[in-house]
Structure prediction request, 560 residues.
Amino acid sequence: MEKEISLVPALEVHDVTVAFDRKPVLWNIDLTLPQGKLVGIIGPNGAGKSTLIKAVMGLLPLSSGYVKLFDKPIDDVRKRISYVPQRESVDWDFPASVLDIVLMGRYGKLGLFKRPRKADIDVAMDCLRKVGMESFVNRQISQLSGGQQQRTFLARALAQQADIYFMDEPFAGVDAATEKAIINLLRSMTDQKKTVIVVHHDLQSVPQYFDYVIMLNTRLVAYGPTESVFTQENLTGTYGGKLTLLTDVGDLIRREGFPNREAK
Amino acid sequence: MNDIYIIITASLVATTCGLLGCFLILRKMAMVGDAISHAVLPGIVLAFLFSGSRDSVTMLLGAGLIGILTTFLIEFFHKKARLQTDASIGVTFTWLFAVGVVLISLFAGKVDLDQDCVLYGEIAYVPLDIIILDNGTNIGPKAIYVMGTIFLLILVFIIAFYKELFLTTFDPAFANAIGISTALWHYLLMSAVSATTVASFESVGAILVVALLIAPAATAYLITDNLKWMMVIAAISGIISSITGYYLAVWLDGSIAGAIATCAGILFGLTLVFSPTHGLVFKKINALEVSTKPSN
Prediction:
């Protein structure tokens, strides 16, 4: 695997198995990701995509194996990791404003007993500006559209000023404009050597969006740079050839080749 | 003077319950509050038997432990035995409550504990149990001091840890990811609910305390979209229920605790209909305005 020698890997997953009720949802996952990459996790429903990022962050118990971030155990680097959960995982009728939510991103750095100060509010405002939500700062979260909710979550993650970001389907239910804005933002983050790991559904956009791809179906089918790993063979291995879409994607790849990012 | 003592005690109970109730409602754990308020009964009786007095500290500890046990059992049945949440709540608290009832009937002669009083509360007796200093000064009923202390403790708890309670309530997964333990705050909050329930049981009783845990907070939820205001409004709504409830009871010559809970319910009903933000009337008016606009 391609590895940047100067940097410790952002993420190392070693022989990780996760089981619910003795039924494995993830089986023997072994992978290493370098820093500063935009990484997509793809696979069919129930393949364990969300489980993988939750297990990596220590939100689920591992049946075996271990995980290291920046060559350290997860609890030593909590302040450097950020998480964007699935939008539906929270109650958007909660009595809170957009600013309240984004400020949560500062809580990890604040510690006990401390309240967010002016500096934290400035960071939060700055992050809202980056996602184009500055005019919604005092809006009740119950009045946001799906795309705005997603951007609020993203702003909260940005406010953490972390080094590695785990995002669970940030593009689910957002419109095309928001998706484009989000991907540009993620791209600018990886330009600053941040690592962004995204659970993703839309296979068509994989070659355009991601530097690295992790193809998962309970077991790890393949992972590595998108150009070399996102192949028809691996897709069939991941999805079992069930989707007719797969051949479409394959055709697409063959016909157009990979978009050259440097040329942009 | 007795009126004032009773109203102050009831208001302290209602305010404390209202503050905690906001978090219970938002965590979708209203019924866990219900469960704890019933399940602490054996804790109360056992603390009575061991300490031989209604010494508040022992009782709070006993009940606090039982409260945490209740929360733990509910989670255990739900997660390990794969029982539905409502079923595990139902099994846990009725069982513990029943044990409490048996204990009371067994030791009725030995402990100064009246079954009706524990279940329904008797706030009218509050002015009878007064504290008299060594020099003979009457400084008011004991219940006010007990409830006042609990109120201050809960207030400090919520103010000091507002951030953590807010985050673990809204988004537990994110809280865990950034290293704020949801389990810790869950159990701390449940201990606070247990302590409050025990401190309040003498005045409003084990059953009616649920009304004050949920109704004022539910009322506030329908009025505001801001958690801090929700807690303030829940507290005010609890105080209004206490005052109106007391005079309703005097007028009807009925149970004070019952009347207070009734008023809390009526207040909720009124808010449901007339709330400026989420009320039925206002929504109807809004809907009419929207539907008539295009034709204009």
